[in-house]
Amino acid sequence: MKFSVSLSSRIRAQVHLSEGTQFIGVTGPSGAGKSSLLRALAGVEPSAQVSAEWGMHSAKVGIVFQQPMLFPHVDVRGNFSLASRHAKANAMSLHEAAKGCCCEHLLDRAVSTLSGGEAQRVAIARALVNGPDVLLLDESLSAIDVATRRKIYRFLKASCSKRSMKCVVISHDLEDLALFSDEMLHIVDGEVTSNGEVSAVLQQIFSAGDIEVPSALITGVLSERDSSGNIAHVSVANEELFVCLDSLAVERDADGIELAKFTVKACDVSIDTNVQLINETSTSSILNTLPCTITTVDGFVEQDHSKKAKVLLTLQIKEGSGATHNPQLLYASVSALSAERLALRAGTPVLARFKLP
C-alpha cells in the first residue's frame, strides 16, 4: 500500500506501507500538515496532486473532521438515514455502527443537545453507515474520554479486519496510536520524517527530543484474565505482569496466540539496582518488575552547575534465552540526584518497577 500527496507549501508525502496494514496512525506537531494530508487524500483539496493505492479497486473514501459537522435540521437518527442513502450495499448497519461508537442512546436526540464528545461519536458512526473502504479521522475522537475513546478504537480496529477497511487516524495521543496502529507516520514541517513499524517510529520521535516524557510500547503474551475480569496477566521476558484490561490492545498472531500491547510512561517507572531481588517476594505495592540494562542516560551532566533536575534512562528489557524478536525498550524518568547516587550509567543492570498500566 502506498500513497503520495503534494500540496504547495503545506504537505509533501511519499508513503510506503506494508500490504497488510489496515490501521495507520498519524502524528506530529500542530501545523505540520497532517490535516492537509487527509484532506488531500479525501479529495477536498482541488490543487493537491494525489496518488493513492489502497490495495483495492475504486476505493470509497470517507473523512471525519475534529468538528463533527452533523446536519442540524434532523436528529441523530436522521443523520444516519441521510448517510445511508448513498451507502455501499454491504455498508455497516445503523445498529452496529451506533453500538460500536457508543452512541445507541443518542439516536433520538437533537444534534443541538449533544456534547462535543457525543457529537464526535455520532459523526464517526455516521461515516461508517455510509460504508467507506478508507476512513480518515482527523482528530475525530479528541473530545471523547479515554475509556470510551479506546472502546471505539477497538471497534474500528476490529471493523478494519472484518470489512477489509483501511483507517487513517490523526492524533496527538501517542499512547492511543501506539496501542492500535499497525504502522505510523510522523509529520514535521510538511514532510514525513519517519513511517513504518510503530515502535521504530516512536523511538525516532523520542530520540528527536520532541517529547519530554515518552511512553514505551510493550508487547507480551496474554496468559489469563483475573477472576474480577478487570486485570490481565501478561508474560513479558519470562516475567508475569499485571495490566488493566482497559489499557490493553489484544490481537492474535498467525499461531492463534493472544498478544497484548500496553504502554508504560517513563514517569511511572522506578529503578532498583539490586537485581538479585527479581526472584524475591516483594513487599511493595508496585506489582510489575522487569530485568533491564540501561542503554543511554540523557540529561546527566558531570559539571555541578549544569545538571538537569531529571534524567531520562533508556532501558533494554532482558528477554529470555529463546527470544527471537527485537529487544523491547522501556523509559524511566528519574531525578538527577537518584541517577548520581545509584551510579546509573549505560550498561548498568537494573530492575524496572512500575504500577498497573
Strand order in the largest sheet: 5-6-7-3-8-9
Largest sheet: 6 strands, mixed
What is the molecular shape?
globular
Note the quaternary state here. single chain
Structural class: alpha+beta
Determine the strand fraction and express it as a percent band: 25-35%
Which terms would index this structure?
alpha+beta; single chain; 6-stranded mixed β-sheet; 19 strands; about 350 residues
Quick synopsis:
This protein has helices spanning 34-42, 76-84, 94-100, 116-129, 146-163, 174-180, 198-207, 336-341; strands at 2-7, 11-16, 23-27, 49-53, 61-64, 134-138, 166-170, 183-188, 191-197, 215-225, 231-236, 239-244, 249-252, 258-265, 269-272, 288-298, 310-317, 329-335, 349-354. The chain has 357 residues and is of the alpha+beta class.
Structure commentary:
It is a single chain. This protein is an alpha+beta fold. It contains eight helices and 19 strands. α2 packs parallel to α4 and α3 runs antiparallel to α4. It is globular, with a radius of gyration of 22 Å. 39% of the residues are buried.
List the helices and strands and how they pair.
Layout lengths: L1 E6 L3 E6 L6 E5 L6 H9 L6 E5 L7 E4 L11 H9 L9 H7 L15 H14 L4 E5 L7 H18 L2 E5 L3 H7 L2 E6 L2 E7 H10 L7 E11 L5 E6 L2 E6 L4 E4 L5 E8 L3 E4 L15 E11 L11 E8 L11 E7 H6 L7 E6 L3
Parallel strand pairs: 3-7, 3-8, 5-6, 6-7
Antiparallel strand pairs: 1-2, 1-4, 8-9, 10-11, 10-14, 11-12, 13-14, 15-19, 16-17, 16-19, 17-18
